[in-house]
Amino acid sequence: MCVTKLLKELIHNELWGEQLSFSSIDKKEFSALQNIANMQTVNGLVYSSLINNNVKLPQQEVLVAFGSLENTKKANLLLNKNLIFLTELLEKHNIKFFVVKGQTIANAYPRPLHRVGGDIDFYCFVEDLERLLNILHKELNVEPKRDESEQHYTFLFNKTLFELHFTLYKFANTENQQYFDNLINSEPLSYTFIDNKKIPTLNPTLNLAYTFLHLFHHLIELGVGLRQFCDVAILCHIAAIAEQEGDRKNCIDKTKLIEILIRLDFLKAFTAIGTILVDEIGLPEAEFPYTLTKKDYKRKKYILNVVYKRGNFGKYGRTIKVRSGIKYYIEQTNIKLSHYYHLFNLSRKENIALITKEIPKKIFQAIKR
């Protein structure tokens, strides 16, 4: 069996409980599987499935799988601890905020500690931002650094990278930016519980829209891994289950979701991503919140080529490894232009603004460096 088929089966088993068609993996297969799982940042899901299904592995590979999964669990426990600490700190000072991505989505996985984590992303409402920066400096002794993307500050605390967003999603199109910012400021929040601590996050409808936008942004920029697709699939799944159970609080408002995507001109992009969720990640088609048609599958092959070539956040498939210098920026720009060319019509409104405003601006900044 080819390695991508192995990977798909293991993901389907871990997320949806689908039965595996194999009971053993040899050393060569494991090595290829390890490489692709790391590249796609789904190694926790893969090792979890192998271990829980008692798949027969060579002795050394058993140790690798158990050791890697244990490290993933420990890293997630630290992230959860630091997220709870942050939440309690902000609550103590009456800071209005919410948390996105990461641990809040991992919490919805069948085995939350087996999703490979990253940093902690949280958004602070503008009226509390300056006060929060002072609190972080005074109480945590950190100096948050403003990122070039004009979206967030970053700081390191207790071995965890935090991203403090003052803009949740940076659009090139001004109208899109104003509309989305208004949604963030006007829509009610939702909550999830991590280790019995109530964590504020976006409501299910806006959370799905934002998590998809984040995925598509990275896809069209330099590439994105399967972990982000798993995240979007999980959000669709838990919303569908909530709908079946009559749990209106945790349902997606499909009419509102489509309204948001049409207004931003991202509906075609959303349905294109939907084809990957259904065919690659194994999300039941009925759980995707929009009916897919044959036309939606048109760019599926190209998107998958990007995913498997570029990997997590486009870190792979480049000739220039050092992320600085004019050669790196030229290669980076060429990759982006290729992605924009092939995926342009999926979000025309935003892509026109990106190509006419943002890319020339970044090229100029690179030359200045």
Automatic annotation (TrEMBL):
It comes from the Bacteria. Pfam families: NTP_transf_5 (PF14907). It comes from Prevotella intermedia. InterPro entries: NTP_transf_5 (IPR039498). This is Nucleotidyltransferase family protein.
